[in-house]
Amino acid sequence: xxxxxxxxxxxxxxxxxxxxxxxxxxxxxxxxxxxxxxxxxxxxxxxxxxxxxxxxxxxxxxxxxxxxxxxxxxxxxxxxxxxxxxxxxxxxxxxxxxxxxxxxxxxxxxxxxxxxxxxxxxxxxxxxxxxxxxxxxxxxxxxxxxx
Length: 147
Description:
single chain, globular
């Protein structure tokens, strides 16, 4: 398994492949939620914390919830995001935030150790890789500023 971060270019949106549904099936909903929420705990003390509402606990909790709902749905789980917020439209939803390539790469790097830990829990490496590959490519779509 190679959790490599691909260099992105602002405005370039490569084709995205959704993660293998086996990822969600093996991880399960509760563990998936732990994964996303742990990622947000790492974000809170990272160099990209300023991109998130870390000083408002309710808003930060909502951001975690939205991220979980979106990612669980993308992975073949329940359609919580669509029920709660409607169409995905992630590029538009992220447009108000200045997301540069360095921020994207920091965001991704915070996921790597969390995903590597799933190997010890018996999650198939191929499925973990498919989730990583999705995050790596789709996150390029959200970069909207040079610096």
